[in-house]
Amino acid sequence: MSIPAGKFSTTRRTLWHRVRVQLGVGLLLAVIIPFLVRYRLEYHLQDLDSLKNSGIATTIALVAGYYGFRRVSFYPGVRASYHIFPSFAISYGLVLAVFFFARLDYSRIHFAASFLLSVLWYYVVYFKLQRQQRLRIGVVPYGGVDHLFAIPDVSWIRLNRATDRDGSVDAIVADLHADIPDEWERFLADSAIDGMLVMHVKQMEESITGRVAIEHLSENNFGSLIPGIVYGKVKRLWDLVLSLVALPFLVPFLFLVGLIVRLDSGGPILFTQERMGYRGKPFVMIKFRTMKHQREVDDARSDAITRDDDERITRVGRFLRRYRIDELPQVVNIIRGEMSWIGPRPEAVSLSKWYEAELPFYRYRHIVRPGITGWAQVRQGHVAEVEDVLWKLHYDFYYVKNFSFWLDLLIIARTVRTVLSGFGAR
Asked: Cβ of 201: how many Cβ atoms within 10 Å?
C-alpha cells in the first residue's frame, strides 16, 4: 500500500508494509478460512454451488476493495482509518449487486463474515502502521522552498550537505528551477537512481495540500489541467444511470421532506436560483427551500452569500443544510446534464461574475460539470469571501488536474463522513 505512506514509498519498511502480507493474510482470514469452515459444515450437501460462488465473489470483492483503498490513499490529506469501511462496503456491495441481479446462488453468511473480517483485518494493519504515518521529507536548501516548512503534518528535514543520504527520509524535494550547485544536482540524480522519490517543490506542495496554485498559470499548467476526456464521458453516463436508478427510491422521501418544509414555514417548497454551470453556461439549480420566504433583498450578490448562523435560515432548513438533504432535488439537474454527483459546487451567477472579476482564471473551473459534492467541499467546507474562494479555487483546480474515478471514490467516502459530522454546513 503502504497504508500510511500514501503515494510516497517509504524506505523504513516492515513486514506489515508488504503487499503479500496485507493482501495475502486478508485473503486467508476473510475468504479461505470462512470457506473451509462452511465447507466442513456443509460437505454432506450435494449442492455446494452457492458456497463456491461465494468464495469466488468474496475473493474478487476483497482484492477490489484492497486496491481501491490503496488507490484513494494516494491523495493528500487522507486518513486511512476513515476509508477502510467505505472502500470495502463499495466493493462487496457491487459484487453482491451483480450476483443479485444475475440471480446467481451465493451464501449470505459467507459474504457477511468475509466483509466483517476484511474490515477488521485492515483496521489491524492500519493501527500497526499508524505510528509511521508522518512523512519525513528532505528539503534541498536552494530556491523557493522555505514556505514548505509552514505546511503541517509533515516532518520537513532541511538537508545541510549533499552527502546526507542515510535513508532517514521518505522523499526529497527541491526547487528544480533554482540555480542549484553541481554537487546538489549530483545528489538528486544519485538519490533518484537509488529509488528515492525526488519531486519538484510545486508538485510536492500539490501532493501534500491537495491544492493547485493558480495565481500564475503558464501554458504548461493549462495543458496539465485539462481533465480526462474519456473519463468525462464515462462519468456522465454513470451520473445518468445512477440518477435514474435512485429516482424511484428518492421520490417518496422528497415528497416527505417537501411536506415538512411547507408545514414548518409556509411558502414554496423548492428554491431555484440561476447558477453558473458547465462551460460557463448559466442554469437553474433546484434545492429545498431552507430560508424564510418573502425576504427583502438589498442586492443580488449579498443575498447569494450565506453567512455563519444566518438568521434567514429556518429551523427545518438548518437541519436540512447540516445533512445536505436540501441538495437532493438536484438529481433533476443531473438528469438534465447540467450537474454531476461530484464536481466543483456551482456558484450563483452574481457571485460567479464577482469572483471572475477578482480572481485570475476563475472561469477555468467550469471546464467540468458542477457537482452536488466536491473536493473543495470535503476539504474546506462552505466559503463566500474572495480570500477564501481563492483557496477553494486551488482545491477545484486540483480536482480538475486529477480528474479520475479514484478521486471521485475518495470524495464519496469523505462526503459520507462530512455529512455525518456536519462539516462546512451553514
From this structure: 21
The Cα angle at residue 400 between residues 95 and 376, in degrees rounded to 5? 85
Determine the distance from the C-alpha atom of residue 397 to the mean position of all C-alpha atoms in its chain, rounded to a whole number. Answer: 14
- From the list 36, 397, 89, the residue with the least C-alpha distance to 217 is 397
The CA R_g of the chain, rounded to the nearest whole Å, is: 25
CB 157 within 8 A of CB 169: yes
Half-sphere CA count of 422, side-chain side, radius 13 A: 6
* Residue 324 backbone zone (phi > 0: left; psi -120 to 50: alpha; other: beta): left
Q: Which residues pair with 173 in a beta bridge?
A: 139, 199
Residues in the chain: 426
pLDDT tens string 383-419:
656 667 778 888 898 898 888 888 898 898 888 877 7
Q: What whole-number distance in Å separates Cα of residue 217 and Cα of residue 388?
A: 19
Residue range 186-244, pLDDT digits in tens? 888 888 877 788 888 888 888 888 887 765 554 445 555 667 778 888 899 999 999 99
Report the distance separating Cα 426 and Cα 422, nearest Å.
Answer: 9
The Cβ of residue 150 has, within 10 Å, a number of other Cβ atoms equal to 7
Q: Residue type for 113, please?
A: A
Structure pTM? 0.73
Task: Give the number of other CB atoms < 10 A from CB of residue 222.
Answer: 12
Taking the C-alpha atoms of residue 248 and residue 351, their distance in angstroms, rounded to an integer, is: 34
Please report, in angstroms and rounded to a whole number, the separation of the first and last CA atoms in the chain: 37
